[in-house]
Amino acid sequence: MKKALITGVTGQDGSYLAEFLLEKGYEVHGVIRRSSSYNQERLEDIMSAEEAEAIQNNENFHLHYGDVTDALNVTRLIGEIKPDEIYNLAAQSHVRVSFDMPGYTLDVDAKGTLNILEAVRILGLTEKTRVYQASTSELFGKVQEVPQSETTPFYPRSPYGVAKIYGFWITKNYRESYNMFAVNGILFNHESERRGETFVTRKITLAAARIAQQKQDKLYLGNLDSLRDWGYAKDYVECMWLILQHDKPEDFVIATGEMHSVREFVELAFKHVDIEIEWQGEGVEEKGINKATGEVIVEVDPKFFRPAEVEQLLGNPEKSKTLLNWNPTKTSFEDLVKVMVESDTEKVGKELFNRKMFD
């Protein structure tokens, strides 16, 4: 039985990856940060809420307290578990927040990666342990070519992107310096019903559900013209695994090869709750109108603009498709939005029901 260690296991990608590896017959170890509030909702499909809260191990799934910024803790955990595979998914991954917390973003996204690689090296596990580093399309930032591939020059436009560049290059450096199987998966935007509620896609689908059920009046967004390559996180974790099964360590772009605007995402999300959006105005004055009622339900708020904007990101998944036999469009953009809206519609409905129960 192979052993896998996942940092960031309570996140969107970590929870899907844990499920995927357990289905493959792995013994899965997840690293969680200590919190005074319950932060393991995404793991409840893997283990019960009671088990997660008490950090009790079930047969093949084990949770450990830790933090990638704590080098001693990282080294101890890797030394005790001796994993065959490490998936470093821990990160401060909110781009806008990285402008407000650049130092913390650097500690987690850059130094955290170094701590893992150095632990594998000093523990003498370079022949045994394969390391996957979760990289990001934000490396490309102010894009130098369209689409972006594994050879496209980087030009990050946020503290998050800059910190992730260090993670990318230190992974490559350890691979070439110490003959480690250490690789980068350059993931373009990937979403799901488990995406955090502060991320723009989930913010949109939640708002569509709440507005349709008359629990919210408006949705406020930043740049509606931003173009992104959006895929389904559940599909992307399979590609992470395939990269570590490849016969040699290489870096791969993980993307769909399709690009859509935030405006398109909004239109499609509201369409799934039977609301047709009609746009009026331009720039910060642009508004989304409910065509049936004439109500303004979408507005632009400049506070959501980034200090340095990334206008478009479009990945070239050809290498992943050819060498890994991975299907980047297993879940279409339309199906992704539908899944998210349906999940949030159910969630909002339950919130309403529970509120009535206690009124």
TrEMBL record:
Q: Which SUPFAM superfamilies match?
A: NAD(P)-binding Rossmann-fold domains
Q: Taking every annotated instance into account, which residue ranges of this chain make up the domain NAD(P)-binding?
A: 5-340
Gene3D superfamilies from the entry? NAD(P)-binding Rossmann-like Domain (3.40.50.720), UDP-galactose 4-epimerase, domain 1 (3.90.25.10)
Listed InterPro entries = GDP_Man_deHydtase, NAD(P)-bd_dom, NAD(P)-bd_dom_sf
User: Required co-factor?
Assistant: NADP(+)
EC top class, in one word?
Answer: lyase
What are the entry keywords?
Answer: Lyase, NADP
| EC annotation from Swiss-Prot or TrEMBL | 4.2.1.47
Example GO biological process: 'de novo' GDP-L-fucose biosynthetic process
Origin: domain of life = Bacteria
List the catalysed reactions: GDP-alpha-D-mannose = GDP-4-dehydro-alpha-D-rhamnose + H2O
Pfam families attached to this UniProt entry = GDP_Man_Dehyd
One term of GO molecular function: GDP-mannose 4,6-dehydratase activity
Family, as annotated: Belongs to the NAD(P)-dependent epimerase/dehydratase family. GDP-mannose 4,6-dehydratase subfamily.
What function does this protein fulfil?
Catalyzes the conversion of GDP-D-mannose to GDP-4-dehydro-6-deoxy-D-mannose.
* Protein's recorded name: GDP-mannose 4,6-dehydratase
In which organism is this protein found? Domibacillus enclensis
